Amino acid sequence: MSAADAAAYTVIVANSAGNVTSNSATLAVNPAPNAPAITTQPVNQTVVLADSATFSIAASGNPTPTYQWKKNGSNIAGATSATYSIAVTTLADAGSYSAVATNSVSSAASNAATLVVQNPAATADL
Question: Is 0.70 topped by the overall pTM?
Answer without folding.
Answer: yes
